[in-house]
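PROTEIN SPECIFICATION:
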Amino acid sequence: MKPGDVVVGAFPGAGTTKIRPAVVLSTELYHRHRPDVIVGLITTQSPKELAPTDCELRHWLQAGLHQPSFFRLFPVTLLQREVRLIGRLSEFDWSSVRACLKAGFGID
């Protein structure tokens, strides 16, 4: 797995766990030394107003998603063995996600 890959996995929620898509945020170096992967939430729920840490994924079909989708800076760690690769963000969308990371964490 590489940063910008799109995966599906069981996301923990407030009351239940839900299978949903996410984008890989952690690096290959991280994955070599850890059993988990850091991912950010992908949702089909359009926010009323995009926050600086949200972005629309314009090339969602190319990324292996079934519906128009949005990235939200809601990072979670999942076990690598429990996620499945379904696609990869376009360079345009990955750049937008990195801008969200910078806005939320102050890092590139």
Summary: The mean pLDDT is 93. Residues 91-105 form the longest helix (15 residues). The two ends are 19 Å apart (CA to CA).
